[in-house]
Specification:
14 helices, Rna Polymerase Sigma Factor, Chain: A, NTF2-like_dom_sf, 7-stranded mixed sheet, alpha+beta, globular, 45% helix, sigma factor, 7 strands, Arc Repressor Mutant, subunit A, transcription regulation
Length: 331
């Protein structure tokens, strides 16, 4: 931290304040996304964090790093949002066909994907020595989904301790808790996360030949609307999800029933445009307008991989396409 920059920021110099905090914006957004599960809510939380930091810069005494100070503000902003009734309302267009009976109703309806293009702005600072999760796992949809099922305090403690690697004493100070409370919350959070952790093999290296071969087969099956070929690529306990719609299907039989039920609508898909989300392969799904001939984006699909199989297929609303640089129409 530059003492000169801090002094200038305290004197009302916005450029100096921006120089102090801008390098942390990307990682704060990822942290807020992990806390909230929503890209849009995370953006709002980061804006509120930076505004609060600017208004409170006079109160920053430099006893911690600027980064830790910002994490304290951001985490507590997220906790306030989670405990309030003011979260962004979850809305979704209904499916054009009646889906089959789901395996269960979705529990994380507010979940949104995180574009990989935003991960490039992360700080180079490594997590603390007590971190338990590698960065790739800690941004995956499966991890973020599991975190959303934790109570707010457990969620914050787990992310600060096991993802960012803060010590128990530091976490207690960040959250205004006792060390005993932090230790207790972490124990319960770890137990919940362990119960939800998959035993599937790890995904192949991103961009490697194994991943490309599997994804080529997926795209071919999807664009040819071959249900049997698509399901054959999946693990026996694969998930099909579509937040914010409250439908989840688990297992190849349930996934097969779903695609059979929506086949007439699904076969209108004409093109998949590749992107990446949460460190995972993703695509914008486009359908051709029979009148104009233009391709219109209708959703974003993200796949989870396990070895040489697909373990999760999640469809998100088309409204999220601009975050991935996906145009609304293609010629």
């Amino acid at each position: 931290m530059s003492a000169e920059l801090l002094q200038r920021a305290r004197g009302g110099d916005r450029d100096a304040f921006a120089a102090l905090v801008e390098s942390h914006r990307g990682e704060l957004q990822v942290h807020c996304y992990r806390m909230l599960g929503s890209l849009q809510d995370a953006e709002d939380a980061v804006q509120e964090t930076l505004l609060a930091a600017w208004l409170g810069i006079d109160g920053f005494e430099g006893r911690s790093s600027v980064r830790t100070w910002l994490y304290r503000i951001a985490t507590n902003r997220c906790l306030n949002l989670l405990r309030s009734s003011g979260r962004r309302p979850v809305t979704a267009a209904p499916l054009p066909v009646r889906p089959p009976e789901p395996t269960r109703l979705g529990e994380v309806l507010w979940l949104q994907p995180f574009p990989d293009v935003l991960l490039g702005g992360l700080s180079d600072q490594a997590p603390g020595p007590e971190a338990r999760y590698e960065s790739r796992e800690a941004i995956s949809l499966a991890f973020v989904t599991a975190v959303q099922l934790l109570p707010p305090n457990q969620r914050a403690v787990l992310l600060l301790r096991d993802v960012l690697g803060y010590r128990a004493s530091e976490t207690a100070q960040l959250l205004g808790l006792t060390e005993d409370a932090v230790t207790s919350a972490l124990k319960r959070a770890r137990a919940t996360m362990a119960a939800s952790r998959s035993t599937d093999p790890p995904p192949p290296p991103p961009g490697g030949s194994e991943e490309r071969a599997l994804l080529d087969r997926f795209v071919a099956a999807f664009t040819e609307h071959d249900i049997d070929a698509l399901v054959a690529l999946m693990t026996d306990d694969a998930w099909m999800r579509m937040p914010p719609l409250p439908f989840e299907y688990r297992g190849t039989a349930a996934v097969h029933r779903f695609f059979t039920a929506v086949y007439l609508h699904w076969r209108e898909s004409d093109q998949l445009v590749p992107v990446r989300a949460n460190g995972q392969p993703a695509w914008g799904d486009y359908r051709r307008d029979p009148v104009t001939g233009l391709l219109h984006v209708t959703g974003v699909y993200v796949v989870g991989l396990a070895g040489d199989r697909i373990c999760e297929l999640t469809r998100f609303e088309a409204a999220l396409a601009p975050y991935f640089g996906l145009p609304r129409t293609l010629g």
